[in-house]
Amino acid sequence: MLPRLPSRCLVAAALLLSVLAAPRVAWANLKLYMKDGSYQMVSSYEVHGDRVRYFSIERSEWEEVPTSLVDLDATQRAQEEAKATEKKRVEEAKEIGEERFYKPPETGMEVAPGLHLPGDDGIFTVDGPRVVRLAQSATTPVTDKRRAAMVLAVPLPVVKTRSLVVLEGAKATIRLSDPLPVFYVQSADGLGAKLELVRLKPGKETRVVEDVETSRGKGGKATEERTTVALERKQVAPNLYTLKPLQPLEAGEYALGELVGEKLNLDVWDFGYEKWEVVK
After folding, report:
1. pTM over 0.85
2. Cα(41)–Cα(106) distance, rounded to whole angstroms?
3. Residue 105: inside a domain, yes or no?
4. Mean pLDDT for each consecutive 10-residue tract of the chain (280 residues)?
5. Domain's final residue, options 100, 125, 160
6. 258 in Cβ contact with 195 (< 8 Å)
7. Is 260 found in the same domain as 162?
8. Domain interval for residue 232
């Protein structure tokens, strides 16, 4: 709705000029009420003594009726209601625009000169002159169909079922340029104490988070294999942890995942690290 505001301003200006240039009154799709209760849809009308001249939207031509047949009071009330409705719509559009472009106040800890964390929960890092919020992505378990077919043909307990936990897309949307990023985890439930940094295996259309093997049969135990990166973990405030790789990251795809017991939560915070070469 916001992009229409300039045109509405022009319409408002045109309406103001039309009022000042009475007796002509112009409105878009206005109802010109008659005293018998009916109305004509008009784009504008003029009062000339005992005659009312209006442009009919239905017939796309100018017509005239005696002033005695037109309910000018009802028509005026319709104009005022239309103005009030339009004003309300403009105000609502402004409110929506303000909400859309609202930036949470940076009331959190200062993580770099002039850079503060937002006041809400989330996982953040500093990349150059900006604070970056990591987005959470959902992983998908994908079964190895060939291994599953073997399970049906081989007696227990020789073969295990195997599945891959993957993220859609070959690369994460968020790209970092710092090989030793510091992650700031703001959470009231101690999320920073449960996160693990996983290096993802690249694919053409997906990124593999982990391999999962489950023993065949009732109560089969599942084992998860993933490549983790050692982290330095510190609690720097009641609801704030910092996580930092002990070694510089290699170029590739990564994800921060929450450990629930020994299992990795299916929702992770993914990102990619790319080494930028400085051209001299």
Report:
1. no
2. 53
3. no
4. 42 42 50 90 88 87 91 89 81 64 60 86 90 91 59 50 84 92 94 94 87 61 82 93 96 93 88 71
5. 100
6. yes
7. yes
8. 110-273
